[in-house]
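Morning. Coffee machine broken again, so started the prediction first thing and wrote up yesterday's gels while waiting. Chain of 406 residues, entered below exactly as on the submission form.
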Amino acid sequence: MDFTFGPQAQAFRTEARAWLADHLTATTTAGRAWERELGAHGWIGLGWQSPGSEPARHGGTRGPYGNRCGSLTEQVVWGEEYARAAAPPRSGHIGENLLAPTLLAHGTPAQRDRFLPPIARGEELWCQGYSEPNAGSDLAGVRTAAVLDDSGTTYRITGQKVWTSLALDADWCFVLARTEPGSVRHHGLSFLLVPMDQPGRIEVRPIRQMSGESEFNEVFFDGAHASADHRVGAEGDGWRIAMALLGYERGVSTLVQQIGFARELADVVTLAVDNGAADDPVLRDRLVRQWADLRVMRWNALRTLGTTDPAAPSMSKLLWGRWHQRLGELAMAIQGASGSAGPAPRPTSSSAAAPGDPTSHLAYQLGSFQRLFLFSRADTLYGGSDEIQRNIIAERVLGLPKEPRP
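Came back before lunch.
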């Protein structure tokens, strides 16, 4: 199979690389300003296609929502160049890559016209309201309830979501809620678009991780409002919409993610060479295996782009989650005993710590390899645990009996 890119894709790569070089500076950070810069030049929503339209063939033309139209190959190229340039993490990822494709496939024309242009301009940020304290990997256990008022125009939402990325900065949240009282499992759920600016009705609480950072949040809904016009799909059809959205988490984003993985692996190899750990045949073998496995993951991701194979997303998640964990473990092994201590002592005076430092409660500052190790412990849990991915493959692909459920 040919995994090379043609002349048009290479020309697009040159354009993308030049634009990033011109617009990225040492002070560029993630956030609304950077999202608006991307949006102003059409780089948000490169893969969006209007329903019924022909697939885009060149990333220079503009779509109906202000986005540049790009082929699947050009989407891969842009993602790779963005990661290779070490550009800031995207604050608009959830709106662009999860909600937008869902609205294009399942939303109404009015919903697409309302929500896609602000996402394309980088003006509105989104978060995902799926997981709950007792409904994480088993998402069908959702208890957050939404009741339609007597006028039939507004839902009132009550419940709690957890592990909600970007909730502190988000303008909107798409929420999976139970709209049919007494319903169980996959039935009676609806997919609602909820404005986050509702003081007294929505509260966001950051969750401190063992790395000291707070990338996730708890979100509490106390009678929060959502317009009935902002329900995607029919009432009770939320499970189908929610599962369709999860399918967009893989694909191009997996290839982009692997650029970051390659950069991390290169840093680990450099450390091993510098401190002599590469002379150890066991550690050297583990490094080579990591490199080889990463190449295989890339080829597999390219091979399955655009596929309808139901096993592909689950296989991808199983591969990269455990690979990244092994890389974190290898980084700690290469550091040796020094990996158990921080590279820089924490100032003894609390006033000497940097303002807003998320690790200020720790006795020492974490190094990049320690952060890699600690964060990667979650890779086999978030986005669907390894156990859930194996169940999906067993039940939906191999046709094995379903796991007993209470």
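The chain has eleven helices and ten strands. Going to sketch it on the whiteboard this afternoon.
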